[in-house]
Amino acid sequence: MQELSKKISLFTDSVIRRMTRISATYNAINLSQGFPDFQPPKPILDRLAEVAHNGPHQYAITWGAQNFRDALAEYRSRLLGRTIDPNSEIVVTCGSTEAMMVAIMTLVNPGEKVIIFSPFYENYGADTILSGAEPIYVSLNPPEFTFNPDELEAAFQQHPKALILCNPSNPCGKVFTRKELEYIATLADKYDTYVITDEVYEHIVYKPNVHTYFASLPGMYERTLTCSSLSKTYSITGWRLGHITAPSSIIEGARKIHDFLTVGAASPLQEAAYIGFKFSQQYYDDLLALYTHKKNILLDGLDSLGIIHTNPQGAYYVLLDISEFGFTDDLEFCEVLARDVGIGAVPGSSFFKEPVNYLIRLHFAKDDATLYEALNRLEHMKSIIKRRVI
After folding, report:
1. Residue range 63-71: mean pLDDT, rounded
2. DSSP 8-state class, residue 388
3. How are beta strands 242-245 and 224-229 bridged, if at all?
4. Greatest CA separation found in the chain?
């Protein structure tokens, strides 16, 4: 038999999703894969019940149902500060995961380079490899996860086709400042580089931090593919509804890639979810208040337990320092944590290009009772997990 594609040897399966399976095996509280254990907004669920009986149940237009795109364009126009054409500047995808893959494949030829900040959401490396491109990693340095301007320009000097910008960042929760974004914009213009943004946590930005859309910066809309989804904003991660906003010249190509990757996103779910775009600002204020509350529960609890952790500026993840336990393999630590403590986490090494093996990622998109129970289990972590000799 002929051998399989060499690409599949260049990356593993998703460690995040693997940790969900391990959590299920040990009946652990799953703080690894970032999905809520509470209900989506009632108006969306009520509309879904209507759609279940009345439809549509057949294909929508491949790049998105018209009413969905109309509502999405109005919503994105408010956020980006410009008028977005629903018929030429939007493509609806099967989650932001497909949106990112489509964006990279639309821009990048095999052998071309893509800048990725490290730490990074694990899909970005695999997406780049699957596109035949070469990643260039630029470090975000803790505790504030700032980048070195000289290191970033050195990456741009390699003439990459694109830069991937996750803002707010998964896994570290960094919110890029306007000054940082303007510096990136200067380099993107100087070296004629596209920017692909992943902004799924755009409405979960903790005060006093402020989210700035890269595409809203002067001259940047023309070279930016803005990717996002409904998953985190409306707590419907399983619905797999994402989208790309970009100039019509880019979207025309993106629609071709999307069409042959997945044909289209689920039409009944588009019909139910589009009403979320019509929610008032109060909904987004309440969403931020909800996650600020949950963040405080987890971080205050970790402080009281004496566990070293990051303080995210956005998104709903926190990185814990496990160096005191003496493990040299953070994946092994996470397996022990799930089995013996009953907490599912993600090893930090799956997010870093650098040799980082002393961090794990937890998320706090959980019901309050779940978070308090997780803290109760973590209280006994130090006595349950024996210190290893390095």
Report:
1. 98
2. P
3. antiparallel
4. 63
Distance, in Å, from the CA atom of 153 to the CA atom of 171, rounded to the nearest integer, reads 23
What is the rounded distance in angstroms from the CA atom of residue 115 to the CA atom of residue 136? 5
Dist CA 229 CA 238 (whole Å): 11
Both tokens of 164, joined, read 């991937």
State whether the Cα torsion 246-226-356-30 is positive or negative. Answer: negative
DSSP class of residue 41 equals P
Nearest to 104 by CA among 257, 248, 232, 209: 257
Other CB atoms within 10 Å distance of the CB of residue 156: 21
Alpha-carbon gap, residue 92 to 109, rounded angstroms: 23
8 Å CB contact between 213 and 245? no
Residue with token string 């019901």: 367
The string of pLDDT tens digits covering residues 296-317 is: 999 999 999 999 999 999 999 9
At residue 90, the 3 state secondary structure works out as: strand
Contacts of 6 (CB under 8 A, 6+ apart): none
pLDDT at 185 over 60: yes
By percentage, how much of the chain surpasses pLDDT 90? 91
pTM above 0.85, yes or no: yes
Kind of pairing between the strands at 113-118 and 162-166 = parallel
- Give the CA radius of gyration of the chain: 21
Peptide bond into 168 cis (omega under 30): yes
**Which residues are bridge partners to 319 per DSSP?**
361
Query: Which of 227, 253, 252, 255 is closest to 241 using CA atoms?
Result: 227
Q: What is the pLDDT of residue 388?
A: 62
331-351 pLDDT, tens digit per residue, is: 999 999 999 999 999 999 999
- What integer pLDDT is reported at residue 15 of this predicted model? 86
